[in-house]
Amino acid sequence: MIIFALFIAQNSLDFFTKYGLLGLFLNGMFSSFLPIPTELTTAALIATGENEYRVFVVLTVGSIIGGIIAYYLGYTGNTLSHRMRKITRIDDKKSQRSYELLSKYGWALIFISPWIPVGGDVIPIIAGIKKYDLKKFLLAMAVGKTIKAAAIVYFLAFIIVTFFH
Asked: Is it the case that residue 81 has pLDDT exceeding 70?
């Protein structure tokens, strides 16, 4: 599993950084339902001198669109969501646990889901499957992803400027 994660991380870094802000947008979008880390692409773009504000906006918009896509996949019962669960190795036990947590904590879980490694990727899909209220989902997801993007971009910018310039 660790080797698989390293393989995905390295290949996603190569692919997404090659396309700059467009690559970051795609990375942010896909990371909402696949375990592809945005931190590596974000760090690479900041290290090459890309404007932090643009990185923040692109990452935020891509992540929010990805969250909407994940919700939609779950909502429609799309077989792609079942395939993605297999690719991300989200088994029925993890899926059931996420389902129970969503029932109990709702918007709070959606809000923090961007910070939950791997398992957090399935929460928007499960919210769609459960037909969770779209307005509540959009608000919680958008605020959570915006805060995460700001934290990632500005923390990485601080680290890169402080230690590598």
From this structure: no
Question: Which of these, 148, 151, 154, lies nearest to 67 by C-alpha position?
Answer: 148
Query: What range defines the domain where residue 147 resides?
Result: 2-164
Tokens representing residue 34 in the block: 């696949």
Give me the torsion for CA of 70, 75, 77, 78, rounded to 10°.
-40
pTM of the entire structure?
0.81
Task: Tally the domains of the chain.
Answer: 1
The token pair at 50 is 């890309």
Contact residues for 29 (Cβ-Cβ < 8 A; gap 6+) = 62, 63, 65, 66, 69
How do residues 90-112 score in pLDDT, each as one tens digit? Answer: 556 666 676 677 778 888 989 99
